[in-house]
Amino acid sequence: MKSSELFPHALKEPPKDAESINHQLLVRAGFIDQLMAGSWTLLPLGWRVVNRINQVIREEINAINGQEMLMPLMTPRSIWQETGRWQKAEEVMYQFSDDGGREYGLAFTHEEILMDLLRKRVNTYADLPIYLYHFSTKFRNEARARSGILRSREFMMKDLYSAHASEADLMDYYQKVKEAYIRIFQRLGFNCRVTEALGGVFTENYTHEFQIPSEGGEDVIFYCDQCDWGQNKEVFKGQVGQPCPKCQKGKIIQSRAIEVGNIFPLGTWFAEKMKAFFTDQNNQKRPIWFGSYGIGSTRVMGAWVEISHDDKGIIWNKTMAPFDVHLIELPGAKNALEIYQKLQEAGLEVLWDERDINAGQKLVEADLIGIPVRLVISEKTKDQIEWRLRNKEKTELLSLSEVVNRLQKES
Amino acid sequence: MKSSELFPHALKEPPKDAESINHQLLVRAGFIDQLMAGSWTLLPLGWRVVNRINQVIREEINAINGQEMLMPLMTPRSIWQETGRWQKAEEVMYQFSDDGGREYGLAFTHEEILMDLLRKRVNTYADLPIYLYHFSTKFRNEARARSGILRSREFMMKDLYSAHASEADLMDYYQKVKEAYIRIFQRLGFNCRVTEALGGVFTENYTHEFQIPSEGGEDVIFYCDQCDWGQNKEVFKGQVGQPCPKCQKGKIIQSRAIEVGNIFPLGTWFAEKMKAFFTDQNNQKRPIWFGSYGIGSTRVMGAWVEISHDDKGIIWNKTMAPFDVHLIELPGAKNALEIYQKLQEAGLEVLWDERDINAGQKLVEADLIGIPVRLVISEKTKDQIEWRLRNKEKTELLSLSEVVNRLQKES
User: Any CB–CB contact under 8 A between B202 and chain A?
Assistant: First the structure.
């Protein structure tokens, strides 16, 4: 894409009300725009990042047999009353009625909707297990929407739901989702900590949260500096500095963190409340075993910016970058169009800054937007191309074919 | 995908309250589920169809320089008050307030949101034109949600918005969108009619609707049986049977129809109301010229079912079918797994009915689901495969390589 056509252009300054790093950088660089407190437009750059995040999630959830679909956002009061959550969740759920007196809630999660679907379409054990997910908007009534895109009134989540004929089958799948989540956050480049958490009223088992250690986070977590042990602050009863209860070798450290995912083995609580039964091998009616598993994909974008930036701007990695390469054309550059086309023919997504503006401004904006590979062509580079990684100082002069080779191998 | 794993299995009967064809067939075959009147879950089969529809739209809108993004659904009252639509649209817009007294509307369209974005990020004529679109949920307060997925309280739309420095540039782009829409509906297999329509308060120009002639439609349109002339019933003042005012050769006929798209040259009305100005070449402040362009992608799915079905079920075409081929394994079939894998290796999406159920039920469900190519393997077919198109009676015995060749060429 040509920079002259990309909407919008970067701002010279971050917005005045922006306190958090992700708010400052994502707005200034043109990834997101604030419609009102806690409500964000994902601009073309931001939408590209969220799509790349979603695609990694999709691949890993499909690999554990998830089936993608799409559930509604406006839901009837009656369905939430069956579990008592119309009242219990009234602080977080936007609730309203239409002129005919029908009452609705905007979905902040989809367990009840999924359970309604299951009770209509599941008959016997042979219909189970079932794994369904969607990427969808969630609404949450936040008294104080803050931290940029980390805590919004409206945000995007991937939520997966699983239905089983037995607890053993549920817990087996729960473990598979946990491993899939670890792969997802690894592929996205995070140092993600899995922490034990409480399950609320729904389960006596621990649930698990996926936490990104970051000063910009609102959570506090405790984890071992040597192994994968971790707990959130509701669960943790020990002392910082003590030996790890799992490996004994490491020490427990404390960190602020951003929660990007969570998984819940919900048991039969929802099925019992909503009368979602199946017939087992002995022709007995049994409640469906149920689990739910979320990842906040817009929050993942914000979390990355919190942990990967410098004083010049964002530093994307190649998995979630909005473009693979940023081609900066400076005065006297030769063959810019040809280079742009050749890179695209090699299967790369290219942002080509062909604008007739100040060279310094182009370089400042490139650092701000943070695409991992910057290519500069100018009078000085002649028939070559200046290669620079966003997170390194070193520049190199390469031929076009060397550039393509490197980009196809690594960046 | 294996049929045993696909959620949900088909129903023996259509739901009792289903009046329209698309409601009956899409629910029974497992493409959609009704959460409440006018609110539908797109089940895995339905989501596949809508994704294929969206992908055709995306390709054609990208080809006319559209940039994809995602705007919020919950919007502040203040923004609608600037254009007067908070009051004017109160019958169709769900409006509510939170416990802090903040008032919100659920977006039934996004002109105001887009215009707010433009006034924040557009300065001069050099920033224009801009073409932005998203695929997103729309909400509409329908007193009587009906006609299955054709008239819902919540549905999916692609909406594109364009911003220009002059009327000429707007109208030039308007024409490009019209041509892109014609290509979209052609690629999707529709005989689509473009009809002139009124523009409401926003424009004195005609706007255009994209209409699919169908007995299941709620609109009435008038068009020439020889050329592309057409008008909707608000505009049409002639008589059915008269000569076409455009080509003179054809006759005007009348038909019920389903509106699947519309395009509006909105002029400067929104920019003037919302103070969205740019500076022109002479350093004068001017209001932005604006157009908006919608396609209801879930309605497109419903429209196809209305016009393409028989008494056995849906008849998809290959562009929007949920799978390319339906492989039916009957008792005594050899090499089912190998055939399934070979088809997938050839890049085809395959639904493989490997369930241990009655052969008749498998064939009935295949006709109901309506995938364009049905392959049957059984004791009788030996090393060959029985090929049948969903819309033809003829069956043929082919080798696996002949099947793959045909599927890669045509179907």
Answer: no
Report the interhelical angle of A167-187 vs A44-63 (nearest 10°).
140
Do the beta carbons of residue B258 and residue B150 sit within 8 Å?
yes
ipTM surpassing 0.90, yes or no?
yes
In angstroms, the CA B336 to CA B353 distance is 10
Residue with token string 């997504």: A349
User: B249 near B227, Cβ under 8 Å?
Assistant: yes
Interface contact A98-B99, CB threshold 8 A: no
Q: DSSP letters of A18-86? A: --SHHHHHHHHTTSEEEEETTEEEE-HHHHHHHHHHHHHHHHHHHHTT-EE-B--SEEEHHHHHTTTHH
Bond before B44 cis per omega within 30 degrees: no
Domains of chain B, by residue range, sit at 21-310, 323-410
CB B252 within 8 A of CB B244: yes
Instruction: State how far the alpha carbon of B252 is from the alpha carbons of B192, B209, B225, B238, in Å.
Output: 16, 17, 6, 9
Is the pLDDT confidence value at B203 over 80? no
Q: Which residue of A has its CA nearest to B45?
A: A69
Kindly report, residue by residue over A316-329, the tens digit of the pLDDT: 999 999 999 999 99
**Do the beta carbons of residue A327 and residue A59 sit within 8 Å?**
no
Q: What is the edge-to-edge ordering of all strands in the sheet holding B95-97?
A: B74-76, B103-106, B95-97
Nearest residue in B to A62, CA atom: B1
- What is the CATH class of B323-410? alpha beta
Instruction: Kindly report the nearest CA distance between residue B248 and chain A, in angstroms.
Output: 44
Question: What pLDDT is stored for residue A245 in this prediction?
Answer: 96
CATH architecture observed for domain A21-310: 2-Layer Sandwich (3.30)
Nearest to B34 by CA among A131, A136, A117: A117
Q: Per-residue confidence at B29, pLDDT binned at 50, 70, 90?
A: very high
The whole-number pLDDT of residue A141 equals 95
- Tokens for A288? 């469906």
**Which residues 40-79 on chain B approach chain A with CB closer than 8 angstroms?**
40-44, 46-47, 50, 65, 67-76, 79
Residue B403, Cα to own-chain centre: how many angstroms? 30
With contact defined as beta carbons under 8 Å apart, do B207 and B178 qualify? no
Q: By the CB < 8 Å criterion, does A117 face chain B?
A: yes
